[in-house]
Design a protein that fits this description.
Two copies of one chain form a homodimer.
Chain A lengths: L2 H10 L6 H11 L8 H14 L2 E5 L9 E5 L1 H12 L10 H7 L6 H32 L6 H36 L11
Antiparallel strand pairs in A: 1-2
Helix pairs in contact in A: 2-3, 6-7
The first copy, chain A, binds a DNA duplex (28 and 28 nucleotides) through helix 3.
DNA sequence: GGTCTCATGTAAATAGTTACATGATTAT
DNA sequence: ATAATCATGTAACTATTTACATGAGACC
């Protein structure tokens, strides 16, 4: 069962939505751990409809483009519930920064330092953003029955970002000396064995 | 420029390899942050050859299947060096566990608890494995010029896994009470708004 | 004799992104 | 006027996995 299908079913369980709506929700609420493009959402909605997991209604009395609103059918809800019962299998890792570090001996140390710095900055921004959102949610959605779950996803983001920043700080301490000793007088780079 | 192409170029920079060899190295050395399947490696090698980034040599005097050994050309090395100079753009997130947590109100709390427990166990195993490998490397490859870089990738894994386990522990503390109050007397599940 | 590892590759399918195409409404 | 937002969808492309197909040699 496709992950995108599940994500969409999950969001529809909270109420009917158009493809465009789904995109908004994914971007605004799931953005820190999930991503979907419109070019993917529309075909998947079509597929879900073919399978009978969603019902499609065209909003009447609209000028311009038609608005199609989708809602969960009972089959769709059953599929969603089935997913919750299934184990999650880890997705194969692909961390481009770590690939670059691993091959680090082939690179100019300054390039590694820059790569890690940029990563650290990005993760620091995430950290602040996640904390901000968590604070806002705690204040403005204090009564929401979903609050616990949302805070858990944010906390996961915060912890991961903290660990990433701490790693990057440490990595920079080890990489900067290499760049410093390399910079003053540059000959040709050593060929790897 | 394709990430798999880069990974393969990077490994070939350490010496000529066959597709099969590359698979072994990816699995054994890059396994904690990178993945490639054979069905992907072979076509990519073909493509790299077409682009003139690798040279292909068929090993003579072998019975059975031919062994094709690839090595970097200077164009290939240039491509690799270009990559080091380029910024890394973050890949769109897709965290299935967090998706499940986010939609948690739709699930049975026990299912959430199980999902998080399994995740925690998996990450704990990673943690031990990474620490093991780091210890082994420090002892057996103390002189290797790549050691620093390898240890950095492992440290990233260790820190990420530690943060993940800590998060999971905390999440379980918040989710288990929900499961407990749910389990004794189960009526129908509440419908979401 | 059977299974594991070595060794290559192709084919089919799935997943997903980006660019294209269209056009109304609303705010500046 | 013009840009942004609302709104849908398709087409082309890229990436990637899994299954299939083949066969030798080594080990048990």
């Amino acid at each position: 069962m496709n992950r995108t299908e599940l994500a969409i079913l999950g969001l529809l369980a909270y109420g009917p939505k158009s493809g465009y709506d789904i995109r908004q929700v994914v971007e605004q609420r799931l953005g820190h751990f999930w991503h979907e493009s419109l070019g993917h959402i529309y075909p998947i909605l079509k597929r879900l409809h073919r399978k009978g997991w969603v019902h499609r209604r065209t909003e009447p009395g609209r000028a311009g483009p038609q608005r199609h609103v989708y809602s969960l059918t009972s089959d769709g809800r059953a599929a969603l519930e089935g997913w919750f019962r299934e184990p999650i299998e880890p997705s194969p890792p692909r961390n481009e920064l770590l690939l670059r570090i691993f091959l680090g001996r082939l690179a100019e140390p300054e390039d590694l330092v820059r790569s890690v710095s940029e990563y650290r900055d990005r993760r620091r921004e995430h950290l602040e953003r996640f904390r901000d959102i968590a604070r806002t949610l705690e204040a403005e959605a204090a009564e929401d029955p979903d609050l616990t779950f949302w805070l858990l996803t944010l906390d996961a983001g915060v912890r991961a970002a903290e660990a990433a920043v701490a790693w990057a700080d440490d990595a920079l301490e080890r990489l900067e000396p290499l760049a410093a000793s390399n910079a003053p007088h540059r000959h040709g780079k050593d060929e790897p064995a």
